[in-house]
Amino acid sequence: xxxxxxxxxxxxxxxxxxxxxxxxxxxxxxxxxxxxxxxxxxxxxxxxxxxxxxxxxxxxxxxxxxxxxxxxxxxxxxxxxxxxxxxxxxxxxxxxxxxxxxxxxxxxxxxxxxxxxxxxxxxxxxxxxxxxxxxxxxxxxxxxxxxxxxxxxxxxxxxxxxxxxxxxxxxxxxxxxxxxxxxxxxxxxxxxxxxxxxxxxxxxxxxxxxxxxxxxxxxxxxxxxxxxxxxxxxxxxxxxxxxxxxxxxxxxxxxxxxxxxxxxxxxxxxxxxxxxxxxxxxxxxxxxxxxxxxxxxxxxxxxxxxxxxxxxxxxxxxxxxxxxxxxxxx
Length: 330
Ligand SMILES: NC(=O)c1ccc[n+]([C@@H]2O[C@H](COP(=O)([O-])OP(=O)(O)OC[C@H]3O[C@@H](n4cnc5c(N)ncnc54)[C@H](O)[C@@H]3O)[C@@H](O)[C@H]2O)c1
Description:
Elements: E1 7-12, H1 13-29, E2 33-38, H2 47-59, E3 67-72, H3 74-86, E4 92-97, H4 100-106, E5 111-116, E6 119-126, E7 131-132, H5 144-161, H6 163-169, H7 177-198, H8 206-209, H9 216-225, H10 232-250, H11 255-267, H12 280-288, E8 293-299, E9 306-312, H13 313-329
Parallel strand pairs: 1-2, 1-3, 3-4, 4-7
Antiparallel strand pairs: 5-6, 8-9
Helix pairs in contact: 2-3, 4-5, 4-7, 5-6, 5-7, 5-10, 9-10, 9-12, 10-11, 10-13, 12-13
Nicotinamide-adenine-dinucleotide binds near residues 14, 42, 76, 146 and 149.
């Protein structure tokens, strides 16, 4: 960690247990370094946990020269970003992502958030990290469902920005280190292209800014309804299918777009029985929360990005029905 400020390591409890032998001794020996072990659950992304972490930083003498190092998945990374942004109005932040979704998405991002009042990511900040260290070796101990979850975001990027890559990434060996390295590198390239297009152009490039939101309106609602039971990327995969079904019914996307989406996400093992555990009306109520319409970034064709559109509850119901019907046939 550069500089001579204090180093605060916020580490995922499973990662500390599984990988601690590679770093615990060095951290304990350093007089610059203190450690906080967090049990990562979606329910840990809360104001209460944020309060505990910021209290630990302040009690340890954190100042603006201090660095918070987040070692873990998206939960640790999201809450660390909040803590780094808020503590004394900002300290340095380094991400060491240890899940696939964090390596390709949440850690190479500028957003931090916690859930609040029953709303996923309700409170958030923009606080870019000073560095991100991606080591695919961590993924060798990740369970299958969280590896698949990473592929939900990877295939979303592929479908929207680079369909040939999506066709390839849907069929790579799941835990092969060489394939993982190539998939991560390519997805980071797609994500960087996206950021290069929007950085500093937050308002006039709203269309591009929304690119990565495809599938996320429905995914967020599913996650709230099945809190802690549903890895994020699996929710995104289903959200992408439902929202593309809405696009098809609207006449914005050809049936072949939805067919390819289902084919590739299904081939990767991402389309599970998840929607069977969720009632349409509960999902619609969670998406709209009393509003007449919601804004969605809909995929219009493979590789063609998204169109921002106001969607009604009736359209979402129809999209859900079409999705359930097609998933039963697949
Ligand atoms: N742009 C963004 O900010 C963004 C993007 C995507 C996801 N997210 C957020 O990220 C969260 C999901 O991230 P996640 O799936 O990484 O969840 P997570 O942090 O809960 O990690 C998933 C599980 O894997 C375990 N784990 C982590 N690293 C491991 C390793 N190397 N070996 C074995 N087990 C390991 C954790 O203990 C946890 O049980 C959600 O809250 C989502 O909203 C944010």
